[in-house]
Amino acid sequence: MLWTLVIPLKPLARAKSRLADTAGDRLRPGLALAFAQDTVAAATACAAVRDVVVITDDGHAGRELAALGARIVRDEPPGGLNAALAHGASAVRAERPAAAVAALNADLPALRPAELARVLDGAAQFPRAFLPDAAGIGTTLLSAAPGTELRPAFGTASRSRHATSGAVELLLAGVDSVRQDVDTGDDLRAALALGVGPRTASAAARLLIAD
């Protein structure tokens, strides 16, 4: 099964606010873009991925991610993260009703294509499935097989909400790069330890210089 990934991205000026103590307002937007670029680059290189759709109203981010092969869909009307994901899934299925769709976080800078393929292959066994984040509280990927609605419930404690909604939790070892999202300075250090993509590595080096 080949998947279309739907990746949401806030306007860069508002993205990754919890990294303000680590990066500051001057560097934080560039770091958020670097995360998204490395995520999209890895996703497009994954053998299980047909294409990548990014939902964003940020023109600069849209141009940069389109250059990596993503299709850009505007978040309109804006209604928050889950509304953006539902909008993206609807846009995909308006063109291909039988598409297998998965929502993926934009802040996975250590993402490995082979690990993402393992997760998507596991998800293909169920109508809806999800992968919890490294903290075990949130979600980094939610999938919907053909003929199944995505029904995203991201946000605080989304692991519990997705399980309650009937999605199957994927219990997979060796997929740390798909679980390690970045919200805090500690998360960024964990991602760096795993090995991040080149854009995040460059942005993080500038961050260390600034500190």
Query: Which CATH first-tier class would you pick?
Result: Alpha Beta
Number of domains: 1
- Principal-axes shape call: globular
Strand order of the largest sheet: 3-2-1-4-6-5-7
Low-confidence runs: none
Main sheet specs:
7 strands, mixed
Number of discrete helical segments: 8
Reading the helices and strands in chain order gives EHEHEHEHEEHEHHH
**Radius of gyration over alpha carbons?**
16 Å
Overall residue-averaged pLDDT value:
93
Give the strand tally: 7
Helix-residue proportion: 40-55%
* Helix/strand class: alpha/beta
> What fraction of residues sit in β-strands?
15-25%
CATH topology name, in short, is Spore Coat Polysaccharide Biosynthesis Protein SpsA, Chain A
Q: Give the CATH architecture.
A: Alpha-Beta Complex
The name of the CATH superfamily reads Spore Coat Polysaccharide Biosynthesis Protein SpsA, Chain A
N→C terminal distance: 45 Å
Describe the secondary structure blueprint for this structure.
Blueprint: E1 3-8, H1 20-44, E2 49-55, H2 59-66, E3 71-73, H3 81-95, E4 100-104, H4 113-123, E5 128-132, E6 139-144, H5 158-164, E7 168-169, H6 176-179, H7 185-194, H8 198-210
Parallel strand pairs: 1-2, 1-4, 2-3, 5-7
Antiparallel strand pairs: 4-6, 5-6
Helix pairs in contact: 1-8
